[in-house]
């Protein structure tokens, strides 16, 4: 019984998210989505069901439109850290979804940490 790549991804995403819910102590969730062309991140308040801040490579003011590389992911991570500070959020937990923690996802998380966000 071979699972498709999509099924394996969805299982991995649910496993990661369920583990994070168990250790969530009222923190915000920093959720990452990586497509073949872009990367985006949201700072989510799960208690109230609201997005407090977001950043993406689709934003023209970041200067990375159309780029899908590690440098673009780092700029998005720095932008979300700055926007989180404006929203009054000091720490969050990192929800990588079903994506593996390396490459662009790791670069985004490292840049957010350097920007002052505790993950």
In brief:
This protein has 119 residues and is of the alpha+beta class. The chain contains 3 helices and 4 strands; from the N terminus they run αβββαβα. Keywords: Ribonucleoprotein, Ribosomal protein, RNA-binding, rRNA-binding.
Features:
single chain, four-stranded mixed β-sheet, 3 helices
Provide structural commentary.
The chain has 119 residues and is α+β, with helices and mostly antiparallel strands. The protein has a single domain, classed as Nucleotidyltransferase, domain 5 (2-Layer Sandwich), CATH 3.30.420. Helix content is 39%, strand content 21%. It has 3 helices and 4 strands. It has helices spanning 5-23, 70-86, 104-114, and strands at 28-34, 39-45, 50-56, 92-95. It has a 4-stranded mixed β-sheet with strand order 3-2-1-4. Strand 2 and strand 3 (50-56) form a beta hairpin. The protein is globular and about 45 Å long. The chain starts with a helix and ends in a 5-residue tail after the last helix.
Instruction: Give the topology string: H per helix, E per strand.
Output: HEEEHEH
- CATH architectural arrangement: 2-Layer Sandwich
CATH topology: Nucleotidyltransferase, domain 5
Average pLDDT? 91
The portion of residues forming beta strands comes to 15-25%
Using only C-alpha atoms, the radius of gyration works out to 14 Å
Q: Strand order within the widest sheet?
A: 3-2-1-4
Q: Kindly state the number of beta strands.
A: 4
Structural class: alpha+beta
* Main β-sheet description: 4 strands, mixed
Query: Oligomer, anyone?
Result: single chain
Instruction: Calculate the terminal CA-CA distance, rounded to whole Å.
Output: 37 Å
CATH class: Alpha Beta
Give the CA-based shape: globular
């Amino acid at each position: 019984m071979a699972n498709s790549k999509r099924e394996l991804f969805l299982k991995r995403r649910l496993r990661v998210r369920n583990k994070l819910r168990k250790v969530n102590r009222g923190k915000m969730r920093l959720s990452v989505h990586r497509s073949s062309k872009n990367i985006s991140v949201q700072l989510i308040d799960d208690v109230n069901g609201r997005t407090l801040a977001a950043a993406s490579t689709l934003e023209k003011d970041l200067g990375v439109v159309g780029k899908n590389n590690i440098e673009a992911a780092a700029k998005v991570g720095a932008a979300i850290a700055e926007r989180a500070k404006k929203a009054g959020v000091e720490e969050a937990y990192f929800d990588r979804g079903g994506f593996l923690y390396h490459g662009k996802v790791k670069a985004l998380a490292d840049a957010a940490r350097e920007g002052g966000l505790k993950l």
